[in-house]
Design a protein that fits this description.
Number of helices: 15
Strand order of the largest sheet: 3-4-5-13-11-10-6-14
Low-confidence stretches: 1-38
Largest sheet: 8 strands, mixed, barrel
Mean pLDDT: 88
Shape: globular
Structural class: alpha+beta
């Protein structure tokens, strides 16, 4: 993931145009005369007005150099200080580097073509040149740069976490704990001493020395397991050992990848919204920008069932929904089981031949009693499930891409609160009747499907999850490829 670090200095990509400013050139001698009535007018070419690159004073140039070098490290754009210090020596090259840096911290480092289809949460195009020119003219360059980063607590916590894990790395990081039998209360020896040293590097409440596994060390293991989304058993077995042995350099890069995704977010989110963390399979509901409900979810399994990143708005709740089975799932998983299985599980075959499809009836629907609809090109949604056992598991990446909910009834009542038609009694009555009914929300509620593998809890503690879809690594690769192409174009 080393190239996740690189923000390139682009030249061709930085010949920016001022948005929306166009002028028609003056008519030249011999120009085509104005059309007569009934004639088709000749198209008039317009030339965009180019904003010239500003000229920096000596003091401003020094200021820009310092801000870029410091910002590349603090904002997670470069991994090493040596890489961060590489800047053009000429004035125009420095200005282009400043524009490239501004774009990187504001909307990220990928071009539109770099986004894969299921990364549907994408930043709007943005040209930094006009605003940077004004900042130079007003001598407000630091203030302008400071306002470009995502103004979200989640991003700021990652920035602080990045600084902390860089300090841990600079102090020597941590060593891997040797493989061996499970460690638990009563264990002792060199591996327990290694465990203590490892935990103490991240957790200031752990005594770093000693070779005995006591109750206090068990508590520290539980805290670590919670940070990594693992069952909090207090025993160091295979999963916990693997998480603890991830090098600090990889954690630094993981934080950097998630900071990049924050830059793709809209610059403001609605204060009332639902957020799904795909990687952690967690769902949170916000009202007035404060969490009011949380629950476990089950998100898409790797290898073809990935839940996409996207933003949309829930507009209705379907009560007693049938399941219209996607064609691929029907062909791969259901039709081969035969007609008896389909009939026994409530599937109805609709159509014939190549056009036949499956619909599972509401009484046995895999969607349970609730389906939460929002427009998106992937045909995914939030829904109930008859199989509640999945929510007792810590690994809940198990769906075909939709998000199963632990508390769908509570969410439905919350979203329909304020509806004159869909009172709690009306909802219960519709569910009892067993017929499919669509309940329109009194107001649409924003929903965000996000992929966070590193984030901070409310007390600022960094939490890490696995990279189940490999998207952290893919992102790093795409940034590396883009950076190499831009560096080549700049020669």
């Amino acid at each position: 993931m080393a190239a996740l670090l690189a923000t390139s200095v682009s030249t061709a990509a930085l010949a920016q145009q001022a948005g929306g400013q166009v002028t028609a050139p003056p008519p030249a001698t011999g120009a085509i005369p104005a059309p007569q009535a009934g004639q088709t007018p000749t198209p008039v070419q317009v030339t965009p007005v180019q904003t010239p690159l500003p000229t920096l004073s000596r003091e401003q140039a020094e200021q820009v150099r310092r801000l870029i070098v410091e910002g590349r490290i603090a904002q997670g754009l470069r991994y090493s200080a040596a890489e961060a210090q590489v800047l053009p020596q000429d004035d125009q090259g420095l200005v282009r580097a400043a524009l490239d840096y501004a774009r990187a911290i504001h909307i990220g480092r990928l071009a539109t073509a770099d986004f894969q289809e299921d990364w549907a949460l994408r930043p709007a195009a943005w040209d930094p040149l006009p605003a940077f020119a004004r900042a130079v003219a007003d001598n407000r360059i630091p203030q302008w740069f400071a306002g470009l980063t995502p103004q979200y607590e989640g991003y700021d916590n990652l920035r602080k976490g990045l600084a902390r894990y860089r300090r841990i790395e600079a102090a020597g990081g941590w060593s891997a704990i040797p493989a061996g039998p499970d460690l638990s209360v009563g264990s002792s020896g060199a591996r327990v001493a290694a465990l203590r040293a490892r935990l103490a590097a991240e957790d200031g409440d752990v005594a770093a020395t000693g070779n005995s596994f006591d109750a206090a060390l068990k508590d520290a293991v539980v805290r670590a397991q919670r940070r990594y989304g693992l069952p909090p058993t207090g025993t160091v077995s295979t999963q916990t050992l693997a998480a603890l042995n991830v090098p600090v350099a990889s954690r630094v890069r993981q934080i950097m990848a998630n900071m990049e995704r924050w830059r793709w977010m809209p610059k403001e989110m609605p204060v009332d919204r639902i957020q799904v963390n795909i990687a952690a399979a967690q769902v949170a509901v916000f009202e007035g920008d404060r969490p009011v409900m949380s629950m476990r979810g089950a998100t898409g399994k790797p290898g073809g069932g990935e839940t996409p990143m996207l933003a949309s708005s829930i507009h209705s709740v379907v009560l007693n929904p049938p399941w219209n089975v996607p064609a691929g799932i029907a062909a791969r998983e259901l039709f081969p089981k035969g007609a008896a299985y389909l009939a026994r599980n409530g599937f109805k075959v609709i159509g014939t031949g190549a056009n036949r499809r499956l619909q599972q009836q509401p009484a046995q629907s895999a969607l349970g009693k609730y389906k939460f609809d929002f427009d998106n090109p992937f045909a995914v949604y939030l829904h109930d499930t008859p199989g509640k056992g999945i929510f007792n598991a810590y690994d809940r990446l198990a769906s075909h891409g939709c998000i199963r909910l632990e508390k769908p009834g509570d969410l439905a009542r919350l979203l329909l609160d304020g509806s004159a038609e869909w009172t709690p009694e009306a909802i219960d009555g519709a569910l009892a009747a067993g017929k499919t009914v669509r309940a329109k929300l009194p107001k649409e509620v924003a929903v965000y499907l996000l992929y966070w593998t590193a984030y901070a809890s409310q007390n600022g503690t960094m939490n890490f999850r696995g990279d189940p879809y490999g998207w952290d690594k893919t992102l790093a690769s795409k940034i590396e490829t883009r950076s190499a192409a831009q560096a080549l174009a700049a020669r």
